[in-house]
Every structure is written in structure tokens, then in C-alpha cells.
Amino acid sequence: MTEPQIIFEDNHVLVAVKPAGILSQADGSDAPDILNILKDYIKVKYDKPGNVYLGLLHRLDRNVEGIMVFAKTSKAASRISEQIRKHEVNKRYRAIVNGTFTKKDGRMSYYLLKNKKNNVTTVFEKDPGRGDAKLSSLSYRITGEATYNGQKVSLADIDLETGRSHQIRAFMSHEGHPLLGDFKYNDRTYKGDICLQSYLIGFKHPISGEYKEYTLPMKDEGPWGIFGGKA
Q1: Which of the four pLDDT bands, split at 50, 70 and 90, describes residue 229?
Q2: What digits encode the pLDDT tens for the residues 61-76?
Q3: What's the pLDDT tens digit per position in 8-34?
Q4: Can you name the residues that pair with 113 across neighbouring β-strands?
Q5: Quick one: 123 exposed, middle or buried, by C-beta within 10 A (0-12, 13-18, 19+)?
Q6: Residue 231, CA distances (Å) to 52, 141, 169, 216 in order
Q7: CA-based nearest residue to 223, from 177, 185, 183, 180
Q8: Could you give the CA distance from residue 157 to residue 197 in angstroms, rounded to a whole number?
Q9: Which domains does the chain have, with CATH numbers?
Q10: Within a 10 A sphere around the Cβ of 186, how many other Cβ atoms?
Q11: If exposure means fewest CB atoms within 10 Å of the residue's CB, which of 24, 26, 32, 191 is most exposed?
Q12: What is the arithmetic mean of pLDDT over 108-120?
């Protein structure tokens, strides 16, 4: 792949874009992953001998594009991980989903249970009382509506209150609004990448303590272009 897209870098943290189709970390296959891509980038840029340390602090689904923050030191990794545990890291997503919403902003809260064998997350409206089902929630705001390939679609801005696997994808499908391109969660209308983008991350710098936010513009190709650059 081409050179990684670096948004911010200093001696402590690295903020970069994971493209759709790239793993967050290696899974034992030969598929490329952003963690090793960035390690190679650091190794070459700074002519570092031996192994390069880069801490993976969170993940994005393989087919999802978005901003990720990595730690360049163990101290930075510990401090940002603590922010994540305390829900002090701000992560926002934008998604294009099927249909339109009567309620243009709201909150969803369900129990989620992931089947590791088929990598599918199931939504329960009540605690199923089995397995590792976890109560999960998000809030959303509809920022645009349009017609794409003859069907109504909506642009949603999403704030994850919890960070469960496939949470946005499973929630929206359960509500009758599967994401465009998300075949696993019942979209059969669009054959491209899943229309989900992690577009903002905000955290306190692990050394200075200053809060910073980094954002990614909405793409202008494919279904995204119909919203004319709306945030």
C-alpha cells in the first residue's frame, strides 16, 4: 500500500488513518495490518535498528476506515489506555444507513453477545442471562437525508458510549437501518466498503495533559458524495 496517512506525530503518540480493508493488527494471515505498517514507517523514517515499539490502544473493524491513536512509549500507552478505560477518550463516527428516521436524534441501548466462531454480534433487548452479553449504548444524530440508487438513506453522526465489537453495525441493523455495504448485517443494496468512518478522536496528551481532537474529512466519492460534504 502507499505511505500511511499520518495526522499527528510526536515522541509520544502517533495519530494515523487506517484505510478500509486493512486490519488493525495482525491476525496470523498474510493480510496487511496498520500496526505493522506504522512500525515499518517509524523504522524507516528514523532509521531505527531492531524492533520498533508501538502500542495498539484500540481497534477498528477491518472494513472500516478511520482515525486511530497509537502510543510510541509504554508510559504513553498506559496513560491513554487509562483514559479509554475511564471513557475519557472521545470517538465519533459517521455512517450512511438505509432508510430515514422519525426521531432525528436519540439513544440506543441493548445487550450485545458476540459469536466468535462466525464473528457476528447479536442484539438482545433484555439481558439473555447467558454468555458474555454486555449492556451497550450509543447516541446518534441524523445530519442528512438523500436518495441513493433509488432508495432513501440517512447520514448519522454517532457517539459510542461503549466500544463493543460491531456495535454500530449490529445496533443499526436491529433498528431496521443497516449500514450501506454491510452484507454481514443485512444490507443487500451496496457492494462497496461499509459506509462507516471513525472521523474524530480526542484525548489528553499523555505528557502535557492538553486535550486535542483530530478529525478526518468525509470522503466525496461513492455514497458519501451525495451529502455534499456535510459533517
Answers
A1: low
A2: 898 999 999 999 999 9
A3: 999 999 999 999 999 999 998 989 999
A4: 122
A5: buried
A6: 36, 11, 20, 10
A7: 180
A8: 10
A9: 5-226 (3.30.2350.10)
A10: 15
A11: 191
A12: 91
